[in-house]
Design brief:
Blueprint: H1 3-9, E1 12-17, E2 22-28, H2 35-42, E3 47-53, H3 57-70, E4 74-75, E5 79-81, H4 90-102, E6 110-115, H5 117-129, E7 135-140, H6 143-149, E8 154-159, E9 162-169, E10 174-178, H7 187-204, H8 206-214, H9 224-244, H10 259-268, H11 275-293, H12 298-310, H13 321-328, E11 334-335, E12 338-346, E13 349-356, H14 357-367
Parallel strand pairs: 2-10, 3-4, 3-5, 3-6, 6-7, 7-10
Antiparallel strand pairs: 1-2, 8-9, 11-12, 12-13
The structure holds nicotinamide-adenine-dinucleotide, ligand LNCXM5UN and zinc ion (ZN).
């Protein structure tokens, strides 16, 4: 195979057909230089502004802006906020909105969200709000953002009461994922992101789960080609769900697998633990609870735990059940005295259950902190 063909083989385009707007997710090595052309074809507009953060902007904003200018955009001065979950807050959102206004972006102009899930969430929300909605192109640079947060249109900031409590559904005009950007990601962040990859495999792809358990995605066997394939498969899994249920009235709630307990672990750590690691721990806790309730087999639970542990991700939490329940009580999926949870039954089969807070407390007792007990 010639080099040119090999590069073509690593590229894929996944079409996402949500009811509010259809768009394409471009996955491949070296895609960043195509950003301008993809934005022009999908979002149009005359002017654009890159929103990024202090770690990612020095690495990739010049290349992104060069590509945008080459495609004919009038590129406004970029907006850069402090990296980290601590920035996913209303004051930072307000600064970004003031920044877009100061740069005189119009409603037909384009926000470029360049970064990990934090950037995608807050820049996506800024785009949803600014002038009651302008175009956004998502350019995910972390693995988590490539496989999950850039796709599906959930945007949000956090409140003191919990994660993602203020947000909007706002689909991008396009997603441009360049797996080459992962070359600058730290091993710890790559590992963290694998939590959402494993979640997708548990939801819909038993063969992928077993492949990942044998050969972890954060291991030495992963080259750009494998990474691009796994990212594209993850995007397809998420695409199928969000296309069927964009506003999370049913099926989309399954994407919250591992999140009821995961979000609680994340908030209790004051966001010092990464989102993907917390999802991995929450997923294993729910799998163990499911096994002990007789909802899934020991083998199913073990396959999930094995894959999580093979990636060096946490398979449990040491937080007390009281602390966990204190945070779960603020979960968005709580409706009065009940909470919606996602329970693994088999690999590639999960069930949504509505449980009382008392039942959830029992599941937490069964699934969390059981190692060595
Ligand atoms: N909207 C959704 O559907 C959705 C889905 C999953 C997660 N999320 C949200 O995403 C966030 C987590 O995303 P994340 O893990 O990407 O966090 P993040 O954006 O904070 O990125 C993690 C770290 O990696 C750095 N980074 C990102 N790309 C890099 C690169 N290419 N090279 C070097 N450093 C890089 C960042 O600067 C940061 O320090 C959470 O806020 C979570 O709630 C949203
Ligand atoms: O896209 C979705 O839907 C998801 O639930 C994906 C999750 O991985 C993501 O963490 C999402 O932000 C969680 O949504 P929330 O509504 O529980 O905050
Ligand atoms: Zn998540």
């Amino acid at each position: 195979m010639t080099l040119e063909n090999k590069q073509c083989a690593e590229k894929s385009v996944i079409h996402v057909d949500t009811s509010s707007r259809p768009y394409d997710v471009h996955v491949g090595a070296g895609n960043l230089c195509q950003l301008g052309a993809i934005a022009r074809a999908s979002a149009g507009g005359a002017r654009c502004c890159v929103i990024s953060e202090t770690n990612v902007a020095p690495l990739y904003a010049d290349a992104a802006e060069k590509s945008l200018a080459a495609a004919g955009y009038d590129v406004a001065e970029r907006l850069v906020f402090a990296a980290g979950e601590g920035s996913k807050r209303l004051p930072v959102l307000a600064d970004l909105l003031e920044g877009l206004a100061a740069r005189e972006l119009g409603r037909a102009d384009v926000v470029i969200a360049l970064g990990g899930g934090v950037t995608g969430d807050i820049a996506g929300l800024a785009a949803a709000l600014y002038l009651r909605g302008c175009e956004v192109v998502q350019v995910p640079t972390s693995l988590l953002a490539m496989v999950d947060s850039s796709v599906g249109g959930k945007t949000a900031v956090d409140l003191a009461a919990g994660k993602n409590l203020v947000g909007a559904f706002w689909q991008p005009a396009a997603v441009v994922a360049d797996v080459r950007c992962l070359s600058t990601v730290s091993p710890a962040l790559l590992t963290d992101s694998c939590g959402e990859v494993i979640k997708h495999a548990v939801l819909d792809d038993a063969a992928l789960l077993d492949e990942l358990a044998r050969s972890p995605l954060n291991g030495p066997e992963t080259d750009e080609s494998r990474m691009a394939r796994v990212v594209a498969r993850n995007v397809s899994i998420k695409r199928d769900v969000v296309a069927a249920d964009e506003r999370e009235s049913g099926l989309r709630q399954t994407l919250n697998l591992g999140h009821t307990i995961g979000h609680a672990i994340e908030a209790a750590s004051d966001f010092s633990l990464g989102h993907g690691s917390c999802v991995a721990a929450g997923l294993c806790c729910m799998a163990r609870a499911s096994e002990r309730r007789g909802w899934c087999s020991p083998q199913t639970c073990e396959r999930i735990e094995r894959c999580v542990i093979a990636h060096g991700l946490p398979a449990d939490t040491e937080l007390s059940h009281d602390v966990l329940m204190g945070y779960v009580a603020h979960d968005k999926k709580r409706h009065g005295a009940t909470v919606s949870i996602v329970v693994p039954e088999e690999i590639a089969r999960v069930r949504l259950r509505t449980v009382s807070l008392e039942e959830l407390a029992q599941l937490v007792e069964l699934g969390c902190g059981v190692r060595g007990a």
